[in-house]
Design goal:
Chain lengths: 617, 225, 164
């Protein structure tokens, strides 16, 4: 580990690392994101390590476990450089072949290549995979090159060059000016102009200032910050150090939610290595500037993603939000000026400093600059993390990158902005993805969750889901949020149980408006959005539930029935065996029947039926 | 020695007034006789802003108006406040309806409902006696140096509690909490038998010592009265 | 994890020292205590309050506010099921319902034989491969009721016992 004291030190280190890399003939990277973990990437990596050692290849091959690659649907992912081979769905049993065929003989293994579902062609390199082609992976792209536990990997990709530039070639005013002219807006949800925030923090009276990185990422369905923090924690750290220098803060906190243990661990490793290298601590790069970072953990509370609640949590209290009449940049943590930004926002800072605000503002639209990382999940073929320039259309993301519908059912809507956002119907998929367009359509950008829904999703059920989610996460202070969401939940429960009546929707809307108007914090203020947007675009589904007592998407349990189609049933008996309610009767090789009075509607029979004979309506 | 006091000019319901800097909108309104309804506010205790009933519409002249609780919102120069705008009335009515649906037998809930004109409740009624206003907690901490009461749990599970549900040794039974509780209804049963008063308020010592919950007007089964 | 024999809570002191007794580390301290004792015993929390010079009340408030803490002993195997939006849209709740029925508990409870603690969480951040279930720290994606039961049965068999 080197201690860097000047720009030339840094340059030398980078050259040294690159030279060392060149000694290897090949670099085999295994994706170590949590999704790939669930699919067994650790086993694959260990197997590869054993095989490489056994075949005495460890001088020729560098094996590394990297950050999340984004195409999570196809994990575990293994890439081989310099050939640029992209293998997906790699299992332990594939390892011997990878060694013997690809590494030793240079032959590509067809069965591990990505197969394009549209063209049915096999694709060898990452660049050609449609999922990646339309993306602009400025922030997330480096994940594949970096082992998050090795600062040298980050140095090799120009890591900390922006920090050196900021400290040696710029002064705080110039740094803030760059961020302002870049047009960077907060990536956590509200989209406030970052440069203005930094300026206000810097100008606020007082000697002591704090900066915070919000890695609470509570929006269900969103995991961009997780992958950034797990895969490239130094990019976030570098942004924070630059920000601290610009604003005059000597202490920073990274607030990581409890559910992200790997992100926490990798952030700790990064902090320790950065400190040893002289990028953190006292007298950074010999500049006389001191800055320390600490990790604070969350305890399982979505509301702690809200800045004042997060600050209360760091102070050792419950996550109850506070009035924002005086902004946190003036009075925040322990009453001092505090600048809080999201993980992705911080990660954009080194890019802007390195390549300039003009470059950054050339990407995106007039009011939404740069790229945004989205977690494209739900009922779409290629689920994973995508990074695209602002201004791309929803259609391009969902169809060109996402590959379109997953199950052959038509895509109906996409939910953006998490519980603070709303759904956007397919008819509006030509909408440009930027802060203002999404807000106008009744949703919002939010932190980046993009959940695709098809004909099999019930929009009333989705609205109900969000209300119950928020009800469970409400801190309970405000009568409007605590009681209001509870009553909204009751009305939606009633509608999905077929007990809605003519006044249900009017009462729901009345409640929604008051909850939004009178709640103290963002949770309550935006809580009605999912309901109001579902009513705006899918009112007919609500009316079906209320008037016809029907769930068109066949989701709402009390309104649906499972049955077995006579023509398809082979009489194999698998469903009868698996049925937990013992509601299926039938003899072997004879058509089976579900007794609807006993049926618990769990769906196990549908899952196990190979003949596709189970119908839900 | 004269202390220079700064003042702030603002308008409330069209009236221009001048108040001391650092005042809240609620205090400013009361100074000119405008009576904004409150539930969780009590003078000499810090404002909390939990019941949201005292919301008013505030704009700073830059176009957008928003609602905020007048008990916590500090006055600022040029501020324009509306205490009875349609948006405020709509909010108060719904808040009152929510409050009384949760705690119909708590007098202050009924009072607020009556004041804003709520006669019908469109939600299934519960029978909570605690409205989570937090006055007892603030009284305990700020005036009585007790520090034995607090909120536990979160959201709809939120409750006023003593640590681990037990009355700690440093609780002096000062009953300041009971004194400020708006949900407290001494269940006076009047005359029981000829010549005998029910005596619940007199025999309150017996009850309070057995129970971790502070309100002596409680209706739980353990109440020996 | 027999906590009855550790009523002196000596380990609490070590944990607090590891975090330098800082209030900013309160949540981390409580997590470490929970990892050690399998839940947050009252005695441990009293100790934290006095060492950190905070009100017992406030510590109790924090312990009951955050969902990751449990004030009662949890089961041996922790099953965490994700109820995030992406998992919901892939029929997660129905799967959870089946798991709950199979184990005869509600989410947030421990089975009668103290073996399994079932917990529902609002998003684990592994959204692309939902529905997701975590068992003793190991992640499983694409879960349906059948797969979930297989995993649970495997744990039961390891123990050599019969599920309550």
């Amino acid at each position: 580990m080197r201690k860097v004291k000047s720009v030339s030190d840094l340059e030398e280190w980078k050259e040294h690392v690159i030279l060392k890399q060149k000694q290897y003939e090949m670099i085999v990277s295994v994706c170590g994101g949590t999704g790939c973990h669930a699919y067994g990437c650790k086993k694959v990596r260990n197997q590869l390590a054993r095989a490489i050692k056994k075949n005495s290849l460890d001088q020729k091959i560098r094996l590394k476990l990297t950050g999340c690659r984004g195409l999570c649907e196809r994990g575990p992912i293994v890439t081989i450089q310099p050939q640029g081979i992209f293998y997906q769905r790699v299992q332990e049993r594939d390892v011997p072949l990878i060694i013997s065929e690809t590494i030793e003989k240079g032959k590509v293994l067809e069965h591990l290549l990505y197969d394009d579902p549209l063209t049915k062609q096999k694709v060898t390199s990452e660049k050609e995979i449609p999922f990646y082609r339309a993306q602009q992976r400025l922030v997330l792209g480096k994940n594949g090159l970096i082992d998050p536990a090795k600062i040298e990997d980050y140095i090799a990709t120009d890591g900390y060059r922006a920090l050196a530039k900021a400290i040696f070639e710029m002064n705080p005013d110039q740094i803030i000016h760059e961020i302002k002219t870049s047009g960077l807006r907060g990536r956590g949800g509200a989209g406030y102009l970052t440069g203005n925030k930094w300026e206000n923090c810097r100008k606020a009276p007082g000697d002591v200032r704090y900066i915070i990185c919000n890695c609470d990422e509570g929006d269900p369905g969103a995991y961009m910050d997780r992958s950034l923090m797990e895969g490239n924690p130094h990019s976030v750290l570098e942004g924070m150090i630059i920000g601290a220098y610009a604003m005059g803060a000597n202490q920073g906190f990274i607030y990581v939610r409890h559910e992200y243990p790997l992100a926490c661990k990798n952030a700790e490793i990064a902090i320790s290595q950065a400190r040893k290298a002289g990028f953190l601590g006292k007298n950074i790069l010999g500049s006389g500037f001191n800055f320390e970072v600490e990790i604070a953990k969350g305890g399982g509370a979505f509301v702690c993603g809200e800045s004042t609640a997060l600050i209360a949590s760091i102070e050792g209290m419950v996550g109850e939000p506070r009035s924002k009449q005086i902004h946190t940049v003036t009075q925040g943590l322990w009453g001092r000026p505090t600048n809080l930004n999201n993980v992705e926002t911080w990660a954009n800072v080194p890019l802007i400093i390195n390549q300039g605000s003009q470059w950054f503002s050339s990407i995106g639209t007039e009011k939404s600059k740069g790229t945004k990382i989205f977690s494209l999940v739900g009922r779409v073929k290629n689920t994973g993390l995508v990074e695209v320039p602002m201004g791309i259309t929803l259609r391009e993301i969902i169809f060109d990158i996402g590959g379109g519908p997953q199950n052959g059912k038509a895509i109906k809507a996409v939910q953006t902005g998490g519980p603070s956002g709303g759904c956007i119907p397919a008819s509006l998929f030509n909408l440009s993805v930027d802060f203002d367009s999404l807000t106008e359509a009744g949703s919002m950008m939010g932190s980046g969750g993009m959940i695709v829904m098809d004909e099999g999703s019930c929009m009333v059920d989705v609205a109900k889901y969000f209300v119950h989610f928020l009800k469970g996460e409400s801190c309970g202070k405000c009568l409007s949020c605590r009681e209001g969401l509870k009553r909204m939940g009751e009305i939606l429960d009633g509608i999905t149980e077929g007990k809605g009546n003519g006044e249900s929707l009017a009462l729901l809307e009345e409640l929604a408006v008051v909850v939004a108007d009178t709640s103290l914090c963002g949770l309550g203020k935006t809580a009605p959005n999912p309901v109001l947007s579902a009513l705006r675009y899918f009112r007919s589904e609500f009316e079906d539930h209320i008037i016809k007592k029907r769930c068109p998407a066949a989701v709402c349990t009390p309104l649906i029935q499972y049955s077995i189609l006579e023509e398809q049933c082979t009489g194999c008996g698998a469903c009868k065996k698996i049925c937990p309610a013992q509601a299926i009767e039938g003899e072997k090789k004879q058509r089976h029947r579900i007794q609807t009075t006993l049926c618990s509607k769990c769906g196990s029979c549908k899952d196990i039926c190979k003949a596709n004979a189970v119908m839900v309506q | 020695m004269e202390m220079k006091v700064e003042h702030v000019n603002l308008t409330i319901d069209g009236m221009s007034i001048k108040v001391e800097k650092g005042s809240t909108v609620l205090q400013a309104a009361r100074q000119v006789g405008i009576n904004i309804p409150t539930v969780c506010y009590m003078e000499n205790l810090s404002p909390y802003g939990g019941c949201r009933i005292c919301v008013v519409e505030i704009s700073n002249g830059n176009g957008r108006a928003s609602l905020d609780t007048s008990c916590t919102h500090k006055v600022s120069e040029g501020m324009m406040v509306q205490t009875q705008s349609p948006r405020v009335i709509r909010a108060r009515k719904m808040l009152a309806e929510l409050l009384v649906a949760s705690a119909p037998n708590v007098k202050v809930a009924q009072d607020i409902a009556a004041r804003v004109g709520i006669l019908k409740v469109r939600f299934p009624m519960e029978d909570n006696r605690c409205i989570l206003c937090g006055l007892c907690i603030r009284m305990c901490y700020e005036q009585m140096n007790g520090e034995t009461l607090g909120f536990a749990g979160r959201g709809v599970e939120r409750k006023v509690s003593m640590p681990f549900g037990k009355r700690p040794d440093n609780c002096r039974l000062c009953r300041g909490c009971d004194f400020v509780c708006p949900g407290l209804v001494i269940p006076c049963q009047g005359v029981k038998d000829p010549g005998e008063l029910c005596g619940r308020c007199v025999r309150v010592e017996e009850m309070a010592s057995c129970c971790p919950a502070p309100t002596f007007g409680c209706f739980c089964e353990r109440n020996p009265l | 994890m027999n906590w009855e024999g550790r009523m002196d809570f000596k380990h609490v002191d070590t944990i607090i020292e590891k975090h330098q007794g800082k209030r900013t580390a309160l949540i981390s301290i409580l997590h470490d205590i929970q990892d050690e004792y399998n839940f947050l015993p009252e005695g441990a929390l009293q100790k934290v309050a006095s060492r950190l010079q905070m009100n017992t009340n406030d510590i109790y408030g924090v312990a009951t506010f955050y969902k990751s803490f449990s004030l009662t002993p949890k089961g041996k195997h922790a099953i965490t099921f994700c109820l995030g939006t992406a998992c919901h849209v892939r029929r997660g709740p129905k799967v959870l319902q089946e798991i709950a029925r199979h184990l005869e508990v509600e989410p947030g409870q421990t089975t009668r034989d103290d073996q399994f603690y079932l917990q529902a969480v609002n998003c684990l951040g592994v959204c692309a491969i939902g529905p997701v279930m975590v068992v003793n720290g190991k992640y499983y994606g694409g879960i349906n009721a059948i797969k979930a039961k297989k995993i649970i049965e495997k744990l039961n068999r390891k123990r050599g016992g019969v599920n309550s």
